[in-house]
Design brief:
Elements (H helix, E strand, L loop, with lengths): L8 H18 L3 H23 L3 H15 L7 H23 L9 H4 L9 H6 L4 H8 L3 H13 L3 H8 L3 H18 L10 H4 L4
Helix pairs in contact: 1-2, 1-4, 2-3, 2-4, 2-7, 2-8, 3-4, 4-9, 8-9, 8-10, 9-10
Length: about 210
């Protein structure tokens, strides 16, 4: 089943360090909180860019104020902290979207696709491009459930059950949404070989 593809390797490698930093931060160690921030912020910001675009920095700032305020109530390890912060960020993003009444952008992306360095020969290469502003714009053009599933799995680095908790859905529904979203992105990025066994790359080893 899962063959090491459940989370980006770079995220997985940091989870032990993150858990230790969070534990120290809860004891009042400000330097440790800065370490936790440094480890979590890139993925969190990418997730928020996929939801609110250029306002991601402002929404992230609001989220971190809440994270710092409520840190003492958190219980869990590094991956748990990643999921907890993503949940807080998601609530702040949805509040922001309600206030701004912003609809996801879907126009003016076709021309951008011509500017991609390519071709992308594998789904993994396509996924690597999700760190770019362009690809996050593409994600924003997906249906909301697919966009959030892709962002939480690939950009934030959550596993299926953790992403499902953030979204308040069953893991199977999130796995399906992530697969559909990734398949659509892969097609847009010129990837030829996303097949029906794709969900196993995203799936949990159950």
């Amino acid at each position: 089943m899962g063959q090491g593809g459940e989370k980006p390797r770079r995220v997985q490698a940091y989870d032990g360090e993150l858990g230790a930093a969070v534990a120290r931060a809860q004891e009042g160690d400000e330097a440790a909180f800065a370490v936790a921030y440094r480890l979590v912020q890139p993925g969190l910001l990418g997730y928020l860019r996929g939801l609110v675009g250029e306002d991601a920095e402002d929404v992230a700032s609001d989220a971190w104020l809440e994270i710092a305020r409520d840190l003492g109530r958190f219980r869990g390890d590094g991956p748990g902290f990643r999921g907890w912060t993503a949940t807080i960020a998601r609530h702040r993003a949805l509040d922001h979207l309600r206030r701004q009444k912003v609809r996801p952008r879907s126009a003016a992306l076709e021309q951008d696709m011509l500017d991609l360095p390519g071709p992308y020969s594998t789904p993994d290469q396509a996924l690597e491009s999700l760190s770019t502003e362009y690809a996050l714009d593409l994600v924003r053009g997906l249906p909301r459930d697919q966009a959030e599933a892709v962002l939480l799995r690939v950009v934030v680095g959550l596993d299926g059950p953790a992403a499902a908790r953030v979204l308040g859905k069953r893991p199977g529904a999130v796995r399906t949404a992530a697969y559909r979203g990734l398949k659509r992105l892969a097609q847009q990025l010129g990837v030829a070989s996303v097949t029906d066994d794709g969900p196993r790359t995203l799936g949990e080893s159950t």
